[in-house]
Structure formats: C-alpha cells, structure tokens
# Entry
Amino acid sequence: MMDWHSLPPLTALRALAALSETGSTVAAGARLNVSHAAVSQQVKQLETHLGLALVRRGGRALELTEEGRQLAEAVLAGMEGIAETTRRLRGQAEDRPVVITCTPTLAAHFLMPRLPDFQQAHPGISLMIDPTPQLRQIGPHGGPGGADLALRYGSGHWPGLQARLLVESPVAVLAAPELIPPDVLPSPDDLAHYPWYQELGTNEASDFLRWQGAALAPQRGVTSLPGNMMLEALRSGRGVGPMARAFVEADIAAGRLRLIFEDVRKKGYFLVWHEESLRPAARRLARWITAQAAQAWGAPQGDATAPDGPWMHL
# Structure
C-alpha cells in the first residue's frame, strides 16, 4: 500500500522533471508557467525533503546529480503514463453518445422535429435521448448512466448545476370546448369532478387542484400517459389536463383547446448542465438547443436566474 505521507510534494517533483527536460530554471519556469526563482526554490525544498543533492550548482548551467537524474526519470515516466491514460480516457469519453434527458412532452414537441438539423450539421456526434419526467443525475456524479444535458421544467434552481432559460411557460390547465363549452367557467371544485389526464410519472393533476384548495373526486380517476400523447388526449374531449402552455398556443388560438387556468408557480423550460464535465460534443449540442429555442420562442426576457455558460462563447 502506498505511503502517501512519505512522498515529496508533487509541485517540487514537477519542477525537477521540467528542469531535467529543459536544462535551465528559466525554461523550466516557462514550461510550468512559474518564475525561474520558483523552480529553484521548489528544487531546493525537494533536496531538503530527501536529504540529497539533486543539482550541482556552479557556473551558468545547472546539472543534475546522479540521484537527481534517477528521480527526474522516474517522475517523467510516471507523468507520461498519466498523460497517456488521460488521453485514452478522454478519447473514450468523446466516443460515447451525448446523453440528453428531457420530458416526453419536450422530446416530442421540441427536440425530435428539429433533430435532423443537428444531425446534418454534426454528423459525427451520436446522441442518446432519455425521455422521462424523472430528474436524472447530470455530470460527474451521474455515473455511467448519467446525462450530459437536461431539459427541465422548473424555476431554474438546481444545486450544483448551471441552468439557462429556454422559454417562459406557465402550466396551462386545458380542455376541449366539446367537454367544457366556452360559456362555462368552472371553478377548481367543478374541475375536480371531470376526468383528468396527466403526464406519466408526475402528479400534476392532484398538485394543481391541491394548490387551488380542491381535490379530485373519488369517483373520477386520473389517466397517466406518456407526454407525447397528452395533446391528442386533451383534443379528444374526454378529460381535463395540464400541459406547458408553450406547446399548446396554436391549439388555444385555433379553438381546439380552452385555457381554463394557469399555474404560474414555475418559470419554464431550462437547459441544465454541469460545467466541470461538459464535453465538447455536449457543448455543441447545448449551443444548438439554445439557438433552436430562440428561433422557436424568441430570447427569454429577464433571465436573471440563468447565466450564460462559457460554452456560449466557444
């Protein structure tokens, strides 16, 4: 087992290795982005730590002693192994598909219709789309099954993650005019006696009614279905249900659906990522999603909770 406490400081070992490669403290300092005085000091600290002379000081040039040469060669060999392993792992990471998780509703109504544009612009990038209402792990703590990016509905605050608002959208409680005619203005208690639809994996129906001080009637059940089926279910006129308003504006304008209530407690859809682990391929997808959202909905206004990520400037 490695005795970590007995090892010399890594910065001092790097200074000795760089000195061995370059032959001068000035060149070694430039390679390490430190001053030549810092290189000299680190080598002296290393000599003190080991109780050995590692460099012969005399004249203009610095020459490593035999002990210094052996140690420098060992450090360089170890560093080269680390560098090679890092290159290999980075290569493996870049070969993996970019994983993006989002709700089935967003996948069906926003992402899938636009994917051919991304595939044409980036033919070498493989994607894995995970349509789920569940919050998947994002970034370095997500493990092998984690996601690179997420499209999430909420307020924009997820601890440890960056978020950028794509579109402001309250939740709209909707019904077909055949079910609730335009001249009928139901209260939340009235709505509780209608059949309800909600996206599979959520409790949006009971959550909305509870917020309004009502509860679903015991004789009325809730039908949970995949998000990509919600719009057709509501158009059928067989039940009431919540959807993000951004996806039903055309149906409301055309009279296919009625807007009964709005739940404004959450802000809208956000692009979410972990800055430390965002791979180049994922950054390209993030830029593309942001551009597509701006084309579809325009730039969000007053997006104080969602700072621009560094990928915006790449």
About this structure: The mean pLDDT is 85. The first strand starts at residue 55 and ends at 57. The radius of gyration is 30 Å. DSSP finds ten helices and twelve strands in the chain.
